[in-house]
Amino acid sequence: MSDEDNKHLTKDTLFKPNPSRMEAKNATTDKAAKAIMKTERDAVDAKTARLRAARLERDQS
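RE: above sequence
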């Protein structure tokens, strides 16, 4: 690396600042909520695919 590159490398540019307690709690809650919503969405999508396949099979008969 050149000296010019090293000028831009500081603790502020290399590392993210630590979130505040409230930000950390909000991030945890947000991750949990998104995980729950993804699980529910996957279940709905699976059910929709299963019902669509059953309907197509029924209509072909």
